[in-house]
Amino acid sequence: MQRVMTTVKRLFLLTLAMHLGQFCFGQEPAYHWGEPATNDYLERRIDKLLVLDQQGFVLLRKYTNETFTSFYWIESYSPELKLQSTVPIEFNGGVMGDSYDIEDILVANGKIFAFISHWNKSTGKHTLSVSQLSLSGELKHMKDLDIIPAKKMGNRGFFNFFLSENQQKLVLLSEQPFVKKTMEKMRLTCFDTDDFSIDWTYDHEYSIESSKALHHNVVVDNNGRAFLFKKTYAKGWYYYLYSYSVDTKWQEYQVEGLEGLAVLDHKMGTNINGEFYLFATYTEKESSFKKHLDGYWYFALNKGLEQKTQLRSTWDAELLAGYLLFRKTVDDPEEEKLQDFYIKDVLARKDGNLLILMEQLTTRSSTIEGTSPLQYQYERYYDDLLVLNLDASDGETIWWQCFKKDQTLRNKYEVDEYGSFVYHFKEDRLFILWSNPRLSLPSIPPAGWTEPDGTKYVKKKAFDEKTGYATFMRVVEPNGELAYPNRKYGLPLLNLHRGAVFEMSLTTPFFFSLEGDLVVLATMNNGGKRYRFGFIDL
Fold it and tell me: DSSP letter at 484?
């Protein structure tokens, strides 16, 4: 989810200002939907938001074929959310031995940049360059950012880069190729995105043997200070944390509490005060089948890049005892843990603390017999959602909130459109929009639900007739309380799809915020090609 400029909102909400009321408890928010559009190529999925200005907004669509070749398109929309044009990005991937790949497309300072890697066998060089991308799909080469000497395509090193929150700084981690019986080497470079001039560069040789499987994660803050989290495996996992800045140079921090443990997932960044944090979940026993989360590990620095806290914590006993995730299996104590959670996002609260969003997800896949090329059937189980309010100073849990979603979806797509949830963070209030597929399954009697007060609803009568999957909204208050404790699934958004020509459902992979409000996407969930963007006034 991305923060965007305010101008467009003023343009397309000007005529609505008289009747778009503010969201209030127990009452649905106001919706404003743009004109429906048609996507004739369903394999082209929205990858990210690129631009938002007075002329509207611009999206990037992407398709990757069976040979892992990716193709890109730019879609432009008017301030009224109407599709204006779709143009391809003119890009040639080269040939074997002289190949080009678009590693990522990012926006900085109102301009679109493509980061392109190039490996040339004859010169033995692996290069990362940056090109400016126009809205007409044309790429204009700007400069080479770094070159890794690499004679073999399968051992050419890696480029890993990250853009700061204010889009002013970009850090590039250049991992050098594997060389047997030598120490691992890498280079860090920080660029100013105005012209991609170099702020600083640093070459480092670890006291760790070179490995074919490198595990690095790097971020940079708004001041051009880089943070690096690294792990290695040698009969167990070992973890390392570093920082680099012009003032303090290279610093290594002692990682404590993770000995003999495996980190399952992690996020790192800076809080609202500009202080670095790393939040990770861990397990005492790795498994290929289930992720048993034994607890979390938290690390934080102060503004001077000195260690502020380091904490390994098991889950709150009250959380485990009271939460429906607690697997009470007497014969298997391993089941009495949080399972199959990943970190969805980490949000910065105004008080400097952190809001951790975690979701339970299990995915299974199987081949579809008789298909060529081979196709897969995917089953995804999105179960529970957990929200932690973490004290940024010491890593302790201040409060937690949770609820069940119980979403099961089956399809043939690698990316699921309707499971999980859309989230929006405003004035430290967390809005969660999620769809309940169980209410949309054909059944006799028709599917419905009963609220705790005994009120009964039938989905097809309660929701607008153009609603595919029934969507509900949960609101977590700044103090951790639920806004609708007397609702089984949350506030039902009965009129979300009112006015649609075809039956529509809210999609979850793509959404963005607009001056503190929410823009969402709805599509036909029966394989249809129609879709529309809408504004929700929260």
Answer: -
How many CA atoms does the CB half-sphere of 259 hold within 13 Å? 3
Checking DSSP bridges between strand 83-88 and strand 94-95, what pairing results, if any? unpaired
DSSP structure string for 47-88? EEEEEEETTEEEEEEEEE-TT--EEEEEEEE-TTS-EEEEEE
- The confidence score (pLDDT) of residue 212 equals 73
Neighbours of 463 (CB within 10 A): 23
* Residue the block writes with tokens 């792990």: 231
Angle, vertex CA 174, rays to CA 197 and CA 120, nearest 5: 95
**Does residue 337 have a pLDDT over 80?**
no
Tokens of 40: 């004739």
Provide the CATH number for the domain formed by 89-253 in this structure: 2.120.10.10
Confirm if 365 and 378 have CB atoms less than 8 A apart: yes
CB proximity list for 103: less than 8 A, separation 6 or greater: 115, 116, 117, 128, 159, 161
So what's the pLDDT on residue 342? 96
Mean pLDDT (the chain, rounded): 89
The 3-state secondary structure of 204-225 reads EEEEEECCCCCCEEEEECCCCC
Cα(201)–Cα(69) distance, rounded to whole angstroms? Answer: 32
**Residue with tokens 């790429």, as numbered in its chain:** 139
Residue 226, pLDDT > 90, answer yes
Query: Which residues of the chain are in CATH 2.120.10.10 domains?
Result: 89-253
Predicted confidence (pLDDT) at residue 486 exceeds the cutoff of 60: yes
Which tens digits make up the pLDDT trace of 279-317?
999 999 988 888 899 999 999 999 999 999 999 999 988
- CA torsion sign for 497, 362, 409, 45 is positive
* Alpha-carbon dihedral sign for residues 306, 347, 262, 260: positive
pLDDT above 60 (res 61): yes
Assess whether pLDDT exceeds 90 at residue 240.
yes
pLDDT digits (tens, 9 = 90+) for 356-373: 999 999 999 998 888 877
Give the dihedral of Cα atoms 322, 325, 326, 331; nearest 10 deg: 160
Q: Return the exposure string of 399-438: e unless at least 16 CB atoms fall within 10 Å of the residue's CB, then b.
A: ebbbbebebebebeeeebbbbbbbbbbeebebbbbbbbbb
